[in-house]
Design goal:
Number of strands: 2
Number of helices: 4
Number of domains: 1
Structural class: mainly alpha
Strand order of the largest sheet: 1-2
Distance between the termini: 50 Å
Largest sheet: 2 strands, antiparallel
Radius of gyration: 16 Å
Helix content: over 70%
Strand content: under 5%
Shape: globular
Order of helices and strands: EHHEHH
Length: about 90
């Protein structure tokens, strides 16, 4: 199938950061929501192969991307946690 190799470079970075950032087992819906929120706050960088990006990036660019992903994931975890708590509190009435 054409285009099957194309993906957003940030996806795997975000997924890895999420799994490294959560200390307790969380449900899949929470993790999916966090991933969506974080990815929506990052630029799209479509590649065919991860090695393509790694080869052409400077260490400064890699550090900037890692920092951006770390911030986006932290903010997404906070956002989803807060909204989930608000929703659960409203549902209990």
């Amino acid at each position: 199938m054409p285009f099957s190799d194309i993906h957003n470079y940030y996806e795997q970075l975000v997924f890895r950061h999420i799994l490294e950032s959560v200390s307790e087992p969380l449900d899949e819906n929470f993790l999916d929501d966090v991933a969506c929120v974080a990815l929506n706050h990052l630029p799209a960088k479509y590649v065919r192969h991860e090695v393509d990006m790694a080869f052409y990036m400077t260490s400064e660019e890699r550090n900037k991307i890692e920092s951006s992903v770390t911030i986006a994931v932290k903010n997404a975890i906070d956002y989803v946690s807060q909204h989930r708590t608000n929703y659960e509190n409203q549902s209990s009435y």
